Amino acid sequence: MALIKLQNVEDLYEIGDILGSGHYGQVRLVRELATGTSWAGKFLKLRRSVSSRLGLERKSVEREVEILQALQHSNIMALKDVFESKAEVVLIVELIGGGELFDFIAEKENLSENEAIEFMKQILKGVGFMHGKHIAHFDLKPENIMLLDKEQEHPHIKIIDFGLAHHFTQGGEYKSMCGTPQYIAPEVINYEALSTAADMWSLGVITYILLSGMSPFQGDTDQETLRNIVAMNYEFEDQYFSLTSAMAKEFIEKLLVKNPSERMTADECLIHPWIKPLTRKQAATRSRSSINMKNFKKFNARRKWKMSYNMVWACNRFCRLQLLCKSSAKADEELRGCESDQEDTETKPASLLRRRLSSNS
Fold first, then answer.
1. CA 11 – CA 345 distance, rounded (Å)
2. What is the dihedral of CA 93, 99, 102, 103, to 10 degrees?
3. Per-residue pLDDT for the chain (361 aa), expressed as one digit of tens each?
4. Of 3.90.190.10, 3.30.565.10, 1.10.510.10, 3.30.420.270, which CATH number belongs to 101-296?
5. Where is the Protein kinase domain positioned along the sequence (predicted)?
6. Entry pTM
7. Are 40 and 95 in contact (CB under 8 A)?
8. Residues comprising the binding site for ATP?
9. Which of 121, 330, 332, 357 to pair with 209, CA 20 to 30 A apart?
10. Which residues are annotated as part of the binding site?
11. N-terminal to C-terminal alpha carbon distance within the chain
12. Which residues are known to be catalytic?
């Protein structure tokens, strides 16, 4: 059960400036009165009744809280406290101020595979701990891999956003069609039973992008992207992978495997020769290889542009809805499809995309 305090959050924390806002609430800077430590407070609106369309279901908030309370790890966003009132739940979480890992890398002039591996190790340790608790994230993507403080000599990775995460129970089967199209595994699209292996597929895609600046399955539309994933339609083009070591490509190949049971686990990844060289020759080969920075910068710029465009599009759409829609319930329904953390304007829930795939095939 989620451990939720019934006290007033302001009894223990001083509420500060707004750091961000979305359809379901705000993120504010908060300061713990007892210690002076700064945290981030997620103020989430709850649905007032079963029939209400405004706010989050209490069960979904409880599920995320339970998962975060079970994941106390240095590479996973920490949850400090949870408060509840009639109208909202407040999550006091770690203040992560270093921005996204991909943005940090894009600011560099060059990056060796050795340096990239140090980031991958941290991600794998966090994911491995998560999977050891029988929890899958189901939304691993660049936007959810952050730095605690980018000014540190060796920046610390933090995995965030557990809104789609699931805790597996013995004998239980779980299916879901949620996620961001270019990072989801084939079994998600095919609506098959899922496991923690779906996260390992996502890490394979992230590693491919990190090294080349290209997305392995990205098509001109989301439907094409999903077709490419199901068909395993990807390759290591020389123009993008000329600087990449053979070990790195093998590492990716062992993650982008259609059969989930045949993918490497996080623990197996950590002992793969690309991550942990077995010989001096392997270490030397890795140190001479680097990521394709020119292409990576282009990819990240496109990614950020799409995110910014989507935020403007969502705001404009909401304004039009306010003006045109007589029913506030209808306005709320439309807005649900335009959350600010979506990757681009074409990104829809995988279930909708799969239905479109079926109707077009």
1. 41
2. 170
3. 457 777 899 999 999 999 988 777 899 999 999 999 999 999 998 877 666 667 788 888 889 899 999 999 999 999 999 998 878 899 999 999 999 999 999 999 889 999 999 999 999 999 999 999 999 999 999 999 999 999 888 899 999 999 899 999 988 899 999 999 999 999 999 999 999 999 999 999 999 999 999 999 999 999 999 999 999 999 999 999 999 999 999 999 999 999 999 999 999 999 999 999 888 888 888 878 888 999 999 999 988 877 654 444 344 444 444 444 444 444 444 333 333 343 443 444 444 444 434 334 3
4. 1.10.510.10
5. 13-275
6. 0.82
7. yes
8. 42
9. 357
10. 42
11. 44
12. 139
Residues present in the chain in total? 361
Q: Which CATH number fits domain 9-93: 3.30.70.330, 3.40.50.720, 3.40.190.10, 3.30.200.20?
A: 3.30.200.20
Which token pair is 356?
Answer: 């479109």
Residue type, 138: F
